[in-house]
Specification:
- With 189 residues, the chain is mainly α.
- 69% of the residues lie in helices and 0% in strands.
- The chain has 11 helices and no strands.
- The chain has helices at 2-12, 25-47, 61-73, 79-87, 90-94, 98-103, 108-117, 127-137, 140-153, 156-159, 164-187.
- Helix 3 (61-73) runs antiparallel to helix 4 and helix 7 crosses helix 9.
- The longest helix has 24 residues, at 164-187.
- It is globular, with a radius of gyration of 20 Å.
Length: 189
């Protein structure tokens, strides 16, 4: 019986996944990226573990949804943009520094995107000005991440769990920002 099972597994090619000779360079690279993304997911879940969103839900769900939305709206985003989508709130909400991100092995591109979407308390800009500045001067990946962040923040399922006046206020504020970012993305080709 055991020999029969081994034969069946061999005929299905199960053992090929463990055979380094049958894995292309592209497959290895893809596996390494997915492992790295998984490690970032694990880290942000730990960082946001004791935080909740405005509706009282575990905050770590937000960057995970932003990451999923990024992949849905912008097919084949590069690894740096995917990491940034997951990390987009760690500087502002978790006290993580750009240097700490660098020490964890994140690329300068990832860090630049995270910094671009992070609110600087002393920048003297209104929210609308901050969004306009990002749309005009930010890297494409930062604009994509911020758009996905705002789309998650205005998701009707999330908004319905807030008090109606809070939901209306956030929806109004964020919908204008979404328009600015989408307009820029539409005009940038």
């Amino acid at each position: 019986m055991h020999a029969n099972l081994a034969e069946q597994m061999y005929s299905l090619g199960i053992y090929d996944i463990f055979d380094d000779d049958n894995v292309s360079d592209e497959q290895w690279a893809s596996r390494q990226i997915e492992r790295s993304i998984h490690n970032t997911k694990t880290w942000i879940i730990k960082l946001h573990a004791k935080q909740t969103d405005k509706a009282g839900q575990p905050y770590a769900q937000h960057p995970l949804r932003v990451h999923m939305r990024l992949q849905k709206l912008f097919p084949d985003p590069d690894e740096d943009v995917r990491h940034a989508a997951l990390l987009h709130d760690v500087i502002e909400d978790c006290g993580i520094t750009p240097q700490a991100l660098r020490e964890r092995g994140y690329s300068d591109k990832t860090i630049h995107i995270v910094e671009a979407v992070t609110k600087q308390a002393d920048d003297g800009l209104t929210y609308k000005q901050r969004i306009q500045h990002l749309a005009k001067t930010g890297p494409l990946g930062a604009i994509q991440v911020k758009l996905c962040d705002l789309l998650d923040n205005t998701d009707p399922e999330r908004l319905k769990s807030l008090p109606p006046e809070k939901a209306a206020s956030l929806s109004k504020r964020y919908s204008k920002a979404i328009e600015i970012l989408q307009s820029h993305l539409g005009n940038s080709g």
